[in-house]
Structures are given as structure tokens and as C-alpha cells.
């Protein structure tokens, strides 16, 4: 009986993994669950027989057919509390686009929570405290989500940018990476077509942003390599 419960738990977890990742290998799943590759392949056959449309891409891994969607996921009380905490922390991002979208996500989650868990989560929300940094309701930037999309889609963006000296310039840049600095502000690292090199742009100082239809080739250097070069180990 214990083995059956363990397998059912693993099958459910594999379904979640397949839904959250475009491709995943048998080796990664085997390592995650502490079983053999052969066991993972048997689990995949079981899921297929249960009607889950699993596609095997030779040499790459498993994925679920794009049109297939899992039933709504039920959250435990602990998971709901973790999401609530994340929502409070997200406010520290100081970017209105991220705060708004995450609030919409948590709103959808709240709508499917059982009443007993929802009531406990609401009580916890009233009892949780955060620093002034987190409860500041005046986000300084608003383009994080747009920049993330342009970065992933490899699209050039045009920005009106005001530097520290107060000078405003227009730049066409190729998004490379995004990070949060020591001042809790989001920073865009991008290849500046004007300067012909990677430059940093604080989102606080981006006055206007437009995603263009122009594509670009991603930089060969990785973000880790850039950080090592820019800031050292």
C-alpha cells in the first residue's frame, strides 16, 4: 500500500513538472524522485494510458501536448500561506507591472481556495508585518513585464532615458538581462545600439518604452559571465 501511495504521489508530481516545463528529461525526473530511468519510463506509460498526451522528443525529453491542460491544482494551507508571503514581498520590487500581475495571479488562486483555507489565509494576512520598504505603495518603475517579454522574444526596445545628471536621451537597446540592485531597484542590462556595448539602465529612469518589431541575435556571453566581468567573483 505504501508503495502505491508513493507512486501515486510521484505520478502527480510528474504531471506538475510536465505542465510547468516545456521539456524535461528522464534523468532529471529520476534524480528528483530518487528512482531509475526505467521507472520514469514506466510512469510515463501509465500517464499515457490514463489519457495524458505525452510527447517524446528524441534526445531532448518529454513534454505534454500544447493543447492539454491539467485540472485546477488544489493548494494546501502551507502553500497558500507561502503564496501570500510572496505577494507581500513582491511589493518590494517597486515595479507596478509586476505587482499588478502577481496580484491578479493571487486573486485567481484565492478564488479556488476552499473556504476554510481562505479564511485562515485572510486571518494570517491581517497578522503579518513587513518593513517600510515592502509596504511602500509608490512603485518607482512600471516596465519590468514589458522588458521581460522583449528579452525572451529577442526584440529591440526604444527607451527615453534620463541619466543621473538629468539628461534625457533616446536609445534603441537589445535586452540582455535584468537584476535588482542594492537599492531594491530593477536594472536592465542591454546592448546599446548607440554606444555599441552592454550598458546598464535603471528602470526608475526609463520615462517611456516601446517594444519594436526588430529582432536581434542574443549575446554570446552568459549573464553569469557578465556579472563576473562587471563585479568580480
Structure in words:
It contains 9 helices and 7 strands; from the N terminus they run H-H-H-E-E-H-H-H-H-H-E-E-E-E-E-H. The protein is an alpha+beta fold and 233 residues long. The strands form 2 sheets. It has a 5-stranded antiparallel β-sheet with strand order 6-5-4-3-7. The protein has a two-stranded antiparallel sheet with strand order 1-2. Strand 1 and strand 2 form a beta hairpin. The radius of gyration is 22 Å and the shape is globular. The model has no long low-confidence stretch (mean pLDDT 83).
Uncertain segments are: none
Task: Classify the helix fraction into a percent range.
Answer: 40-55%
Helical segment count? 9
Molecular shape: globular
Q: What does the average pLDDT come to?
A: 83
> Pairing-aware structural class of the strands and helices?
alpha+beta
What is the topology, as strand order, of the major beta sheet? 6-5-4-3-7
CA radius of gyration: 22 Å
Strand content is 15-25%
Q: Give the SSE order as H and E letters.
A: HHHEEHHHHHEEEEEH
Number of strands: 7
Biggest sheet, in brief? Answer: 5 strands, antiparallel
Question: What distance lies between the first and last C-alpha atoms, to the nearest angstrom?
Answer: 51 Å
Amino acid at each position: 500500500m505504501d508503495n502505491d501511495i508513493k507512486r501515486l504521489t510521484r505520478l502527480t508530481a510528474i504531471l506538475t513538472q510536465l505542465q510547468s516545463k516545456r521539456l524535461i528529461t528522464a534523468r532529471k525526473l529520476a534524480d528528483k524522485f530518487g528512482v531509475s530511468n526505467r521507472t520514469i519510463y514506466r510512469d510515463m506509460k501509465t500517464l499515457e494510458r490514463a489519457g495524458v498526451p505525452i510527447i517524446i522528443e528524441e534526445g531532448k525529453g518529454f513534454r505534454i501536448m500544447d493543447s492539454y491542460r491539467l485540472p485546477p491544482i488544489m493548494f494546501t494551507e502551507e502553500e497558500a500561506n507561502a503564496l501570500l508571503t510572496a505577494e507581500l514581498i513582491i511589493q518590494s520590487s517597486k515595479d507596478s507591472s509586476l505587482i499588478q500581475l502577481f496580484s491578479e495571479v493571487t486573486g485567481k488562486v484565492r478564488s479556488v481556495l476552499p473556504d476554510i483555507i481562505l479564511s485562515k489565509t485572510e486571518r494570517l494576512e491581517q497578522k503579518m508585518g513587513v518593513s517600510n520598504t515592502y509596504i511602500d505603495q509608490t512603485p518607482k518603475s512600471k516596465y519590468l513585464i514589458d522588458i521581460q517579454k522583449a528579452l525572451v522574444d529577442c526584440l529591440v526596445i526604444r527607451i527615453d532615458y534620463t541619466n543621473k545628471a538629468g539628461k534625457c536621451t533616446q536609445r534603441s537597446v537589445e535586452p540582455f538581462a535584468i537584476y535588482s540592485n542594492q537599492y531594491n531597484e530593477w536594472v536592465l542590462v542591454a546592448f546599446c545600439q548607440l554606444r555599441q556595448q552592454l550598458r546598464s539602465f535603471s528602470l526608475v529612469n526609463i520615462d517611456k518604452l516601446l517594444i519594436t518589431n526588430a529582432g536581434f541575435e542574443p549575446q554570446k556571453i552568459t549573464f553569469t559571465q557578465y556579472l563576473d566581468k562587471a563585479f568580480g567573483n
